[in-house]
């Protein structure tokens, strides 16, 4: 074969390879972190997100985390692109240098987190927690609830002995009597109330909003705003469905959680639903949380929350119908 013919053959082979590749582009992957409870659990079970994103060339990969801090550590190290947490985890994550964006939030759910004590505990008020051991997941939404509850009782954070444990270990310590109180969120809260007859010393009502935030890795959101928009739209839609059909939602969620329908329904009812954009009011509330933790030296520096709020491009609808 002549050199000219060989060259022509190689060019033809390359062209054919590129042509085949054009029709067989490997799908990209949206990696979502979720916790044991919330709208993402239902979205995962329903499968509609996968159908919507397939048309945009994306697969979906789901990873469960025990709490918000662990989830955002996954986002920080690049193992996930998107997730949901309470108010405090993104503050700690942003302070640690995580390149994250707040992309949406749920309405307040202040009764969905609480300070619990054992049913036979002599403790009857938050003021009586002075000097006591209190279990909580460090950097989680309940961390701020505890700070605010102590302040409302005339105590400071240094007046108690925090015991930092993830939910499963905290429950074990609570059952053993190794701690005097446990600050926890649903569905762990509802389960402890029903299964252990734990008493609520104080929930978030009148103290905190307990927003749920949807967060994305900044590089992913900036590269794929349409994917983020589709995702938030699906979350919003399933939240509306849960609000209108709490009993049906309970039927779906209970087996996923391994909890009774009674416990699950209580947690379902206490959650806020309806993903919506981050408003200036929500930014101010989140800034107060960040300032509080900076003053307590629980984070190493002051933050500007607005710097981490997603602004969808004008050509992209944040909440497509």
From TrEMBL:
It is found in: Periplasm. SUPFAM superfamilies: Periplasmic binding protein-like II. Gene3D superfamilies: Periplasmic binding protein-like II. Residues 29-245 form the Solute-binding protein family 3/N-terminal domain. Pfam families: NMT1. Keywords: Signal, Transport. Residues 1-27 form the signal peptide. The keyword Cell membrane does not apply. It comes from the Bacteria. The keyword Signal applies. InterPro entries: ABC_SsuA_sub-bd, Solute-binding_3/MltF_N, SsuA/THI5. NCBIfam families: PRK11553.1, SsuA_fam. PANTHER family: ALIPHATIC SULFONATES-BINDING PROTEIN-RELATED. Belongs to the bacterial solute-binding protein SsuA/TauA family. This is Sulfonate ABC transporter substrate-binding protein.
């Amino acid at each position: 074969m002549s050199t000219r013919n060989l060259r022509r053959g190689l060019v033809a082979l390359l062209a054919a390879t590129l042509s085949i590749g054009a029709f067989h582009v490997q799908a990209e992957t949206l990696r979502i972190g979720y916790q044991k409870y919330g709208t993402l659990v239902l979205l995962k079970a329903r499968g509609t997100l996968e159908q919507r994103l397939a048309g945009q060339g994306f697969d979906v990969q789901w990873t469960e985390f025990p709490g918000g801090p662990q989830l955002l550590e996954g986002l920080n190290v690049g193992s996930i692109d998107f997730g949901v947490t309470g108010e405090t985890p993104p503050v700690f994550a942003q302070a640690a240098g995580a390149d994250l964006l707040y992309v949406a939030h749920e309405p307040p759910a202040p009764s969905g987190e609480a300070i619990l004590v054992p049913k036979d505990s002599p403790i009857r008020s938050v003021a009586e927690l002075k000097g006591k051991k209190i279990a909580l997941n460090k950097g989680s939404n309940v961390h701020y609830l505890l700070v605010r509850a102590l302040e409302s009782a005339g105590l400071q954070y240094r007046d108690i002995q925090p015991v930092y444990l993830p939910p499963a270990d905290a429950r074990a310590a609570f059952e053993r009597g190794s701690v005097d109180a446990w600050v926890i969120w649903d569905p762990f809260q509802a389960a402890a109330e029903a299964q252990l007859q734990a008493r609520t010393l104080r929930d978030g009502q009148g103290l905190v909003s307990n927003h749920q935030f949807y967060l994305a890795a900044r590089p992913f959101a900036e590269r794929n705003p349409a994917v983020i928009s589709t995702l938030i739209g699906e979350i919003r839609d399933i939240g509306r469905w849960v609000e209108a059909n709490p009993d049906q939602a309970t039927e779906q969620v209970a087996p996923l959680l391994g909890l009774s329908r009674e416990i699950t329904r209580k947690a379902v009812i206490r959650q806020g639903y309806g993903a919506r954009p981050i408003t200036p009011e929500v930014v101010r509330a989140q800034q107060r949380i960040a300032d509080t933790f900076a003053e307590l030296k629980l984070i190493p520096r002051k933050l500007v929350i607005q710097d981490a709020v997603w602004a969808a491009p004008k050509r992209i609808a944040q909440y497509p119908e």
